[in-house]
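ok so dumb question maybe but i'm new to this and my supervisor (M.) told me to 'just get the structure for TetR family transcriptional regulator' and walked off. so i did the thing. is this what she meant?? sequence i used:
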Amino acid sequence: MSRRPDPTRRSEQSRQAIVSAAVDLCVEIGYAATTIEAIAARAGVGKQTIYRWWPSKAAVLLEHMTRVRETQIGFPDTGDLRVDLLAQTSAVQGLFASDTGAVWRGLLIAALSDDVAADGVRTLLQAAVVEAKGRLATAQKTGELRADVDLDMVVEIIYGPLYHAWLLTGRPLPEAYMEEVLSSVFDGLRP
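this is what came out, is it supposed to look like this??
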């Protein structure tokens, strides 16, 4: 007796193939040159299969970024704020230097003119800011951080240099970049 194929399994395989194809193309040829047609051809599916799950290439790539955020980026709480900030910002710096960095850069640029990209980027960034502010609030309660600092501003002070250097200068960042940034600002944040 032969078994009927499981359409759920096949759909998940197609879904994974589509996301992988979109990421690979974005890394190889850039966000702007990546098209739904190219993603479909690389994944071995029809365009209608892609549009069944996502409204655009931005939505496909945002799914990848959401998975990355859920599995690779987190905010530790060892009880030492500076150690935790260094670990988390170094992880972000490493992500920027990886293939996923090319995807994120493309989405950030697309967010300027694409509502789907803008909403997705905003959602991912807001989740990251909430997580960072949660760790900073804990540091305020334990006396590691001045009680009067604006946590939104602290997040901008810490992550601004990383985004600036990565997006605007295009220069390779040394491994110790975030350690230097934190050293430059940390004394002003202490009580």
